[in-house]
Amino acid sequence: MQQDYDPYEIKLANEIADTLKDRDSITLHLQYVRKYKEEFLRKILAKVMAMDESKIRKNRAALYTFLINQSSKYGDAGH
Known about the structure:
Blueprint: H1 7-20, H2 26-35, H3 38-50, H4 60-73
Helix pairs in contact: 1-2, 1-3, 3-4
């Protein structure tokens, strides 16, 4: 099923994907942009980008996804 995203949603999802160097997951980022408030996504992104790379197990994109899912699970996602 094709989702119709507005230009701002597409721009934000692309910005997040580019920042995380995660262009392969653009569909996931579009879903997050549609589901969560921009402030929430930017807060998680800033947290991930501020972390020392040596402290990250896999990569920044995986950590970003993990933190969004954890926050969502515990009701801190800012729907």
